[in-house]
Amino acid sequence: MLMRNPKEFDRVAQEWAVKYAGAPKKERGENSGGASAETIKQRQKKSKEQEEAERVAQYGGYNEDMINRFVTMGFDLDRVVAAFDYVGIDPNGGEDYELEEAYIGDITARLLGEP
Question: Which candidate, 112, 99, 114, 59, places its Cα nearest to that of 81?
């Protein structure tokens, strides 16, 4: 590909560098005058907002600390959120609160596959 299509090679190399090596993402047209610093900032801001929305959705509206108490025990995030939903835990607007011992037992039982 390098010999036949060097521009495509450069594009794929940049994409892999970002994906696998953590290189900074290069905006299209950044070097050709197509993207200004302002448009780059707007895209980054939008990207951060999207990441925040995805993170909130990933936690199912529950507080991250509540969910992470079970995730740190080795349970998958998706399974913990599903167990919270199954048991009927109140998301409480994303605020952290102390779960009752019975709820903790129910969630743990669900995560361990007990009936």
Answer: 59
Find the mean pLDDT for residues 74-98: 94
pTM of the model: 0.57
Contact assessment for residue 72 and residue 41, using Cβ atoms and an 8 Å cutoff: no
At residue 13, φ and ψ (nearest 5 deg) are -60, -45
User: Angle at the Cα of 94 (from 72 to 99), degrees rounded to 5?
Assistant: 60
The confidence band for 7, taking pLDDT boundaries of 50, 70 and 90, is confident
Tell me the C-alpha distance between 110 and 83, whole Å. Answer: 6
DSSP character at residue 94: G
